[in-house]
């Protein structure tokens, strides 16, 4: 058993009905992990001093990689030698986080022998996060992981580990093969993941449908969201069954006797009011539909996505670090997403080139688009402006055009205006 430190303040976190990380770390410390015992001691000191006791001791990593390891050192190593070095390794998760038990045991065995034994399942980007390794153990841990087929994820100003929802493996709504896309991007952009060279981090996340189970629209610099181009499929007999209460709403989520009011619950709550119901049949003006899936979620046995599927590409989401949180904005309304995804990758390369050339230090691509303007971004990625890219009407009515952007009927007026003012 490791030497335990008195932790009266941390002990308070074990009280109450909820599970406590303190209890978990104590369990490892009692099993003989010095790093865990000293981690608790240092955390207690941080609570007492009201300041963190970690310092950045320079770049640390494994040979050939610039990312995947986050360096951390204690600034009181004489008091807590078990956490003098406390580096974190990010291990690239499989698509959709599907693990075989024996594969997890491989990682756990390596980590029990060479690290602190603590880990997070998972980080916000998805990596398996191994917490607490000494510098001299990094290369042996990396060698053993790669020998078993594992790899490190992204960290620093690099491409972070792509992540996706369960996709077609478990979900009937998936419009794209999220797992194949996630794996393909991970393999294609290895250099961008392991060798940080950008202004700041960049994240791909793949949602199989507009329900957005990995919240790509809020959590990724480039959101890939499965969608469809044709009409929503309607089973009018099932619509009638919902209206009659023969099929309960929301798949029975609110009880077996939940009767659906199609006019109030479906049509009136449609964000574009593109649906109507005459008491017998449901009608959808599909050209006005924004694919929000509200109606499909309410009546899954009556409505299904169309069959001409692909993805919408959005760019620019981030958390509130420098300029505040923002959601990603629609850039490509519809793109086919079938292997080898060349059209999408061509867009990505153009986007990265522009960001790499124009981005400031620690500036995410969404912030750069805000600073330089959507027009500059669209020129760089060679896309035409589309009304669907507009988040909201501009507040400033003084809109100025370049002469070559004005329709022919106005060119004469502009020339006359310039002549008058030139005098």
From TrEMBL:
Repressor found in the keyword field: no
Keywords, ordered alphabetically: 4Fe-4S, Iron, Iron-sulfur, Metal-binding
Domain 4Fe-4S ferredoxin-type stretches: 280-308
Pfam families (alphabetical): NIR_SIR
GO molecular function: 4 iron, 4 sulfur cluster binding; dissimilatory sulfite reductase (NADH) activity; heme binding; metal ion binding; sulfite reductase (ferredoxin) activity; sulfite reductase activity
InterPro entries: 4Fe4S_Fe-S-bd (IPR017896), DsrA (IPR011806), Nit/Sulf_reduc_fer-like_dom_sf (IPR036136), NO2/SO3_Rdtase_4Fe4S_dom (IPR006067), NO2/SO3_Rdtase_4Fe4S_prot (IPR045169), NO2/SO3_Rdtase_4Fe4S_sf (IPR045854)
Gene Ontology CC: sulfite reductase complex (NADPH)
Lineage start: Bacteria, Pseudomonadati, Thermodesulfobacteriota, Desulfarculia, Desulfarculales
Record protein name field: Sulfite reductase
An annotated GO BP: sulfate assimilation
């Amino acid at each position: 058993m490791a030497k335990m430190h008195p932790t009266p303040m941390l002990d308070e976190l074990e009280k109450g009905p909820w599970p406590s990380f303190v209890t978990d770390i104590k369990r490892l410390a009692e099993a003989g992990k010095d790093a865990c015992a000293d981690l608790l001691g240092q955390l207690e000191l941080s609570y007492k001093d009201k300041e963190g006791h970690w310092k950045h001791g320079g770049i640390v990593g494994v040979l050939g990689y610039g990312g995947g390891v986050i360096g951390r050192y204690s600034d009181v190593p004489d008091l807590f030698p078990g956490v003098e070095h406390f580096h974190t390794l990010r291990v690239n998760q499989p698509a959709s986080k599907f693990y075989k038990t024996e594969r997890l045991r491989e990682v756990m065995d390596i980590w029990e022998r060479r690290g602190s034994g603590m880990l997070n399942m998972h980080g916000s980007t998805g990596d398996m996060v191994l917490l607490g390794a000494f510098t001299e153990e990094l290369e042996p841990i990396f060698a053993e992981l790669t020998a078993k087929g594992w790899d490190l994820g992204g960290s620093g100003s690099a491409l972070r580990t792509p992540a996706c929802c369960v996709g077609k493996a478990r979900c009937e709504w998936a419009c794209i093969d999220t797992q194949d896309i996630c794996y393909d991007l991970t393999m294609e952009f290895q250099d961008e993941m392991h060798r940080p060279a950008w202004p700041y981090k960049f994240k791909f996340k793949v949602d199989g449908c507009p329900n957005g189970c990995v919240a790509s629209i809020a959590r990724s610099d480039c959101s890939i969201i499965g969608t469809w181009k044709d009409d929503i499929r309607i089973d009018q007999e099932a619509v009638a069954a919902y209206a009659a209460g023969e099929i309960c709403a929301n798949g029975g989520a609110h009880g077996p006797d939940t009767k659906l009011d199609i006019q109030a619950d479906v049509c009136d709550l449609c964000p574009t009011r593109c649906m109507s119901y005459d008491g017998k049949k449901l009608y959808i003006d599909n050209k006005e539909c924004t694919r929000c899936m509200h109606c499909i979620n309410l009546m899954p046995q009556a409505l299904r996505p169309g069959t001409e599927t692909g993805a919408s590409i959005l760019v620019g989401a981030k958390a509130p670090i420098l300029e505040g949180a923002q959601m990603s904005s629609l850039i490509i309304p519809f793109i086919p997403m079938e292997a080898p995804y060349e059209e999408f990758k061509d867009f990505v390369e153009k986007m990265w080139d522009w960001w790499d050339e124009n981005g400031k230090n620690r500036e995410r691509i969404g912030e750069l688009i805000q600073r330089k303007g959507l027009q500059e971004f669209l020129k760089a990625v060679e896309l035409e402006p589309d009304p669907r890219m507009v988040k909201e009407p501009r507040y400033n009515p003084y809109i100025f055009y370049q002469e070559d952007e004005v329709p022919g009927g106005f060119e004469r007026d502009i020339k006359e205006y310039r002549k008058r003012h030139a005098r």
